[in-house]
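The protein record filed below.
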Amino acid sequence: MKRDLYLCRELLLKLEAAMDQLLAIYHFVLGDEDLTIDGWPADEVSYNLARMLEAGFFATHSDTTAEGGFVFSGISWSGYEYLDAVRGPDRWRKTKDGAKSVGGLTFGLVKDFAFAIAKNEAMAKLENAPLRG
């Protein structure tokens, strides 16, 4: 089994959508709808959640529980940094295409690559914005 940054993105999006209460502790059973991602079996989801825990993607958290569940209290700052860098479908497509063209990237490089794409997008918008003042 290996780390899958595409699955990490999907899990962060799903978990963010499930967070509906301030300062709550969330418990998900593996295989639960909130942790089910089409195309990925539960053991790969579990493995990647463990890698995301190691990477500090989650705020106060507990590793997977004895019942095969996952407990966390939210996405951490670094988890949001990654998610915000790859959130938009167009930016994610560009990031994946870039990663494929160089034969894959580490987490840090994927995030940096996505940030570079975002910066280029922002600069293009600023260049075309009318001057005020």
User: Anything to note?
Assistant: Strands lie at 26-29, 61-62, 69-72. The chain is about 55% helix and 10% strand. Residues 8 and 49 are 8 Å apart (CA to CA). The helical segments are 5-18, 42-54, 77-86, 89-101, 107-128.
